[in-house]
Amino acid sequence: MKILIQNLTQNITRDNIDQNINQEVKMMMQIRPVTDLRNKFPEIESIIKEGKPVYLTKNGYGTAVVMSLEKYSELTEESNYIEMKLDEADRAAEESDIRRTHKEVFSRMKEKFE
């Protein structure tokens, strides 16, 4: 009987841990059914105003992400900046015959940041 109670206690504890982990994940990532856009828009709006994205699902599969315009602008600006820097690097590579290995590049970066 004592072993049975211990096993039940361990299972309950594991279940509680699993539930707590699931709740933590849901708090970190807002995953909602797409119908919540219609039925619970004020909740979703308050989440995205906090700067957090809301992941939408349909029939249990991810379909879209909703985020604030500010967050979207940040992402696209970063993306545009990266694209601009890559274009700049391509132009520099076309104008020069110097080529470096990844080891050379990373060792120079280490020297710069140490």
What would you note in describing this structure?
A 3-stranded mixed beta sheet has the order 1-2-3. The protein folds into 2 domains: 66 residues, YefM-like fold, CATH 3.40.1620; 43 residues, no CATH class. With 114 residues, it is α+β, with helices and mostly antiparallel strands.
Describe the structure using short key phrases.
3-stranded mixed sheet, elongated, 2 domains, 114 residues, 69% helix, single chain, alpha+beta, 13% strand, YefM-like fold
Q: What topology emerges from the helices and strands here?
A:
Blueprint: H1 2-28, E1 30-33, H2 36-39, H3 41-49, E2 54-58, E3 61-66, H4 69-95, H5 102-113
Parallel strand pairs: 1-2
Antiparallel strand pairs: 2-3
Mean pLDDT: 82
Number of domains: 2
What sort of overall outline do the alpha carbons produce when their principal axes are compared?
Answer: elongated
CATH C-level label of the largest domain: Alpha Beta
- Structural class based on helices, strands and sheet pairing: alpha+beta
Largest sheet: 3 strands, mixed
Total number of β-strand segments?
Answer: 3
Strand order of the largest sheet: 1-2-3
* CATH fold group of the largest domain: YefM-like fold
CATH architecture of the largest domain: 3-Layer(aba) Sandwich
Strand content: 5-15%
| Low-pLDDT windows of residues | none
Number of helices: 5
Termini separation (Å)?
A: 63 Å
Order of helices and strands: HEHHEEHH
User: Radius of gyration from the CA trace?
Assistant: 25 Å
Question: Percent range for helical residues?
Answer: 55-70%
